[in-house]
Amino acid sequence: MNELAQFLTYAIKVFALNRVVHGVRDSRPYPVIPTGPLLLSLLLGVVLRAGSYRDIAKQTKRRRWQHLIHWPKRISDDAFHYVSERIYLEDLRQGLVEVNQTLKANKALESCKINGLLGLSLDANEHFHSRSRCCPCCCQREIPETDAQGQKQTVIEYYHRYVFAQINGPKFNTLLDLEPIRPGEGEAGAALRLLGRIRRRYGPRFFDAVTVDGWYVQGPFLKAVDKLGWAWVVVLKQERMEVFQEARALSTGREPTQEFYDEARKRKVKLWEVRDLNFSQTYGYGHPVGVVHSQERWTETKVVGEKKTSQPQTTDWWWMVSETLRGYPSQVVYAVGHRRWGIENKAFNELTQFYHLEHCYHHEPVAMLAQMLILMLGFVLFSAYAMLHSQRVRLGQVSLKELAHDLDLALEEALRWEVWFDSG
Question: Within a 10 A sphere around the Cβ of 105, how many other Cβ atoms?
Fold first, then answer.
């Protein structure tokens, strides 16, 4: 069967994609082109990995593309610029929510659980930067550089960053939402807005715990996560912190709580757990926290001068955990803490390499956020089709990149593409 037809059949049958597309509106006063063909073109552009609005505009010249989106003419990149500034972001977010709720209802996120816990990873990623273009929502930083005459100077660089929310596992990963970091704001502030909206949209029981990097080790942030009703696991990096020093002193000289071999990471692991510690005054001294210390040993093999050399390696990790995780073994905290890196490896890296994450399609705040949400929606739909449905991917017969190329080629096959997204 035609690969693109299989993808569309799966997306419509499982996720009601036609309803999602028709549910997105925009504020154009006198639209010439309906929102549906424009949104569907942008969404297909993500799935087929087009790199810009101009690339998508070229695709709309294809006769079968026009049949599929129900618009008989080429759509210009200016039309995509115009509609992206006026699209309703909450409609896009609602479509993403419906897709993810369907994934959970269909048990697709079960493989992401660790001892029954479903964790949400938060992390920030820079979208793009420029020294010439800026908008009211651009963050700024000073960059020292040396000019052609060897003189040192400082230039202003403009950039946009977003906090992403992802659920990841060994088999499947999905993105829930994102929030822009405002000028002069830290990651934690944007992350709290994101978590608040996720709680309203997805409900308090969609996941169980939040995992974050050391940037979020702040009393007010962790206290807010407690109030939102989720457990948390944070990387503890700052040795000057009193809680770090106390945990190290109490664990030194003690026998490890657990010892095991991590087959997936090929490491021997020792774990120490310290409970009932005070974190900070801003978090509240009457609210104890725990710390889990991991010591990991492995042998690293390198090829130097056509000779293999093996060197023993050791690394230490420290995680601070909320009191609500007291009943879980320290090995669960270890697994949850390391799972956080999935947002780097399975979201940011893949989106950057294959989905043009760091390319600004149109430098306007609403347009940028709209395109990021469309990117997330297309990424989740394609990932679900590839990892949960495509037998060729599961058997290792094709890579994800090859599958996307097959979807593009499939559009040239003679099918009645107009039946996929009719007016109803």
Answer: 9
pLDDT at 417: 82
pLDDT at 383: 96
Asked if 400 contacts 47 with a C-beta cutoff of 8 angstroms, the reply is: no
3-state DSSP call for residue 335? helix
What is the Cα–Cα distance from 171 to 109, expressed in whole angstroms?
Answer: 9
Amino acid at 248: R
**3-state secondary structure at position 102:** helix
Question: Among 77-81, 188-192, 239-243, 377-381, which stretch is predicted with the lowest mean pLDDT?
Answer: 239-243
Q: How many C-alpha atoms does 346 have within 13 Å on its Cβ side? A: 21
For strand 119-130 and strand 209-212, is the pairing parallel, antiparallel, or unpaired?
Answer: parallel
Closest CA to 282 of 343, 221, 238: 221
Among residues 11, 69, 57, 39, which one has the least CA distance to residue 411?
A: 69
User: At 62, which helix (H) or strand (E)?
Assistant: none
Query: Angle formed by the axes of helices 89-105 and 187-202, to 10°?
Result: 60
Q: What is the pLDDT of residues 370-379, one digit of tens each?
A: 999 999 999 9
Q: Cα separation of 95 and 375, whole Å? A: 12
Which residue type does 118 have?
Answer: L
The single-letter DSSP state of residue 243 is H
Rounded CA gap, 17 and 134, in Å?
35
| Residue 9: partners with Cβ closer than 8 Å, 6 or more residues away | none
Residue pLDDT, tens place only, 260-299: 999 988 999 999 999 999 998 888 877 899 999 999 999 9
Q: Is the pTM value of this prediction over 0.85?
A: yes
pLDDT of residue 412: 87
Note whether 83 and 38 are within 8 A (CB). Answer: yes
* Cα 388–chain centre separation: 18
